[in-house]
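DOMAIN: structural biology
WANTED: fold as tokens
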Amino acid sequence: MKNYGEEILRMENICKVFDLGEGKKLVAADDVTVEIHKGETLGIVGESGSGKSTLAKMLTRLYSMTSGKIIFHGKDITNLKGEELRQHRKSIQMVFQDPSTAFNPKQRVREIICEPLKNFGLIKSSDMDAKAKEMLRLVDLPEDFSDRYPNNMSGGQRQRIAIARALVLEPEIIVCDEATSALDVSVQKTILELLDRLQRETHVAYMFICHDLALANMFCDNIVVMQHGKVVEKIHDLREAKDPYSKKLMASVFTIEEGKNKVLPDELFN
């Protein structure tokens, strides 16, 4: 089993209730507690509507919490506002399912990758091309992509650019919200291999939101199973699930090759 670093972040007793109007409410997260360690890949799995993406968006503060708290390196950051919250966002970045929705089609790739640095005043315009090329090399894309527009690229290439942009601020956690689910299986494999290599090189932690249990079980170090906004089980290997809901989910998934951990077997993508 992989050895992790110290605990980076803990979400404690998180609740999120959406007011639907006319007295109706939706409980999207109900007393959820999860923790993430340095260099760990934490999978969050469950059916649609289980609360996976809501949890991710509360972690990145795209959604507010109804109750609960977030502890980052031992400090309660639940009520951060203004410049303090803005500065904290450098530590946690996000990669979405469809990167094109997060890109400005009028921006060249160098502007897309360096936009987070520019937003924090950490780069001069004259240095953007060199920095973009450095990040492109990191994600195995040609340097000349720096001058191109994302609409002329494949889905896999755009997702690599999204990963480069997420990494440019050197975050401690990257939230991958279904980051590979829109890709062809062959492209999906190369993106997972890239994420794995980058984690080994940078020790970044991933929160990996995924509906594909076989993929999650293969790629993630630990897995949180959610149902109706609740955590039903936290487990290292879904094949050892004890909760009836987890067992039901796994019963619908083909068998993963035995004895492999954090490996990308070709069999998974056939």
